[in-house]
Amino acid sequence: xxxxxxxxxxxxxxxxxxxxxxKTVYVPDQLEDMPLPxxxxxxxxxxxxxxxxxxxxxxxxxxxxxxxxxxxxxxxFYRVSPENFYLVDLPGYGYAxxxxxxxxxxxxxxAAYLHGNTRLFGVVALLDSxxxxxxxxxxxxxxxxxxxxxxxxxxxxxDKCKQQLRRTHQAMWxxxxxxxxxxxxxxxxxxxxxxxxxRFFLDRHADYLTRRSGGV
Length: 216
What we know:
- This protein has 216 residues and is α/β, with parallel strands linked by helices.
- It is built from 5 helices and 7 strands.
- It has one domain: Rossmann fold (3-Layer(aba) Sandwich).
- Strand 3 and strand 4 form a beta hairpin.
- The radius of gyration is 16 Å and the shape is globular.
- The two termini are 18 Å apart.
């Protein structure tokens, strides 16, 4: 599934949910059973995950941003209220200037978090709209699909890409991913589709709660 399809006819968020950093995990031994449902955000080191989180929260400095890729080197659990679920910011991947040891450490942390996580109701693959599909993106997507985790796709930095080029890349991803509609284009800078993205997240959380209660 991708984030372009939103069930509700109205996607306007009148009151932003409150987003607070509740826990940071650096090594697998620090992982514990967090008490709420979780939606993970995954992407390359320079895809703009931190900027996206800040825009969603309506705060400039909730997640640390940097012009240097690879700033996020931990799992960060952000509690969303009053809906009561976590947005989990995963370490960025694909940063060539980090040592192989460091990259392997992040990969083990991500794998330990994802494997067998029964509270995880999906992973949002954040993909850079300026570029065609990258090998590291496909590796992550194939891993997530192999774990039978629901996968949702979002194309970031849409304001930095000419319309024709982003449509071309959007079509490429649509062919590669099992979705009926193209991945959603968003921009943390301009706010493009941010209400729609929030609505998508809230709908996926509601779907998860319905399934857990036996409603589907």
